[in-house]
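Why should sequence recovery work at all? Because a backbone constrains its sequence more than one might expect. Tight turns favour small or flexible residues, buried strands favour hydrophobic ones, and helices have their own preferences. The token representation captures these environments compactly. In the example below, the structure is given first.
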């Protein structure tokens, strides 16, 4: 494996995490992206929330998320040490709150579902929640405390990951990848805007654009638009919550994720509108209306940013992590809302594949061969004849 040429396409949180791990393991890593550390990773709220995002029928995704959030504290320490700067992890936990009776019933259903899976959460009244987080308003009637669902400042993390990758020897090239090249049996390189980049191994981690890079990925990744707002605390305004607040307001989800200095990231819109990244008036209106119902004090905050990103969705909401297609082609994409959450376990899985080892048990459900016939087993494909080079 050492000295093999790995090209990573996409410098979001997944691509950066995998590039760092691979470069630290001795590979010659080139990271291709026309705008590194941008896109959905730059826009993300930064929730690391497998339990509060759990949904019946997605038990494999829950297990994958729980395994990854367990790795997050160690991952953050390693990134910070390798980068010489903080990784932005927040460990205060999460509360999930409801307003009306219908919202409380939905949270009761979630709590019951999690209890049946052996993942009990603490149910709290509105008064108990306000003792935890005084910023919560009187419309909050009840909810759940989930201390193990964490958060990360996504922009601090991206800066740290890029620094860690470059310190480990990875080269970041600000150019677009157009296609993965192969000779019919194995990867030969990547076509960029102006040249062909020879490669022994290629990792596609280009988010919502991944499906355009090789025919084997067509139809497996699609863009899912999400809008966010960033708020800054102003003098005299009520302090922001210390925990992440996820809420249901008349059936509509909204979240508020704290940032250093009293800021908040507000989000939860979701729309399938192709590659549209314009922020809409309706999206801003709905986010502010619902967030203010839960956290009335934000009316005095400054609105400093509105943005939209494209999450990479997969047909079953599980990511695609593994080897597929011609020899030497790896994918780590399709993480949808969970790119930040799943970065540690994804990077560890990709490193295992590069070493020719089995991926962690929880990652096996994300094998891309669940959608297409495999030419070879993933661990065999990933070797890309490395031992012969």
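From this structural description, the recovered sequence reads:
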């Amino acid at each position: 494996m050492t000295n093999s040429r790995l090209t990573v396409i996409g410098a979001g949180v997944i691509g950066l995490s995998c590039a760092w791990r691979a470069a630290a393991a001795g590979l010659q890593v080139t990271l291709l992206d026309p705008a590194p550390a941008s896109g959905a990773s730059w826009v993300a709220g930064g929730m690391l929330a497998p339990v509060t995002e759990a949904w019946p029928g997605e038990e494999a995704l829950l297990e994958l998320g729980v395994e990854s959030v367990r790795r997050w504290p160690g991952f953050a320490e390693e990134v910070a040490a390798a980068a010489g700067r903080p990784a932005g992890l927040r460990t205060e936990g999460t509360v999930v709150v409801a307003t009306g009776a219908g919202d409380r019933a939905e949270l009761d259903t979630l709590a019951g579902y999690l209890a049946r899976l052996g993942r009990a959460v603490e149910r709290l009244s509105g008064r108990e929640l306000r003792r935890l987080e005084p910023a919560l308003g009187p419309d909050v009637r009840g909810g759940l405390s989930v201390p193990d669902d964490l958060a990360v400042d996504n922009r601090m993390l991206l800066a740290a990951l890029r620094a860690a990758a470059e310190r480990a020897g990875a080269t970041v090239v600000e150019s677009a990848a157009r296609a993965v090249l192969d000779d019919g049996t194995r990867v030969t390189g990547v076509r960029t805007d102006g040249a062909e980049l020879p490669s022994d191994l290629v990792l596609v981690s280009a988010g919502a654009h991944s499906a355009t890079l090789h025919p084997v990925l067509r139809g497996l990744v699609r863009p899912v638009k999400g809008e966010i707002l960033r708020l800054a605390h102003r003098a005299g305004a009520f302090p922001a919550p210390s925990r992440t607040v996820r809420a249901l307001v008349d059936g509509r989800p909204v979240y508020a994720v704290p940032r250093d200095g009293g800021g908040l990231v507000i989000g939860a819109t979701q729309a399938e509108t192709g590659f549209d990244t314009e922020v809409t008036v309706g999206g801003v209106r709905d986010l502010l209306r619902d967030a203010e119902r839960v956290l009335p004090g934000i009316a005095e905050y400054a609105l400093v940013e509105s943005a939209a990103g494209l999450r990479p969705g997969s047909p079953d909401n599980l990511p695609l992590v593994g080897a597929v297609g011609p020899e030497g082609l790896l994918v780590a994409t399709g993480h949808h809302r969970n790119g930040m959450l799943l970065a540690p376990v994804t990077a560890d899985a990709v490193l295992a594949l590069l070493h020719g080892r089995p991926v962690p048990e929880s990652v096996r459900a994300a094998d891309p061969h669940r959608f297409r016939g495999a030419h070879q087993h993933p661990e065999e494909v990933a070797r890309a004849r490395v031992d012969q080079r």
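A few observations help interpret the result. The radius of gyration is 21 Å.
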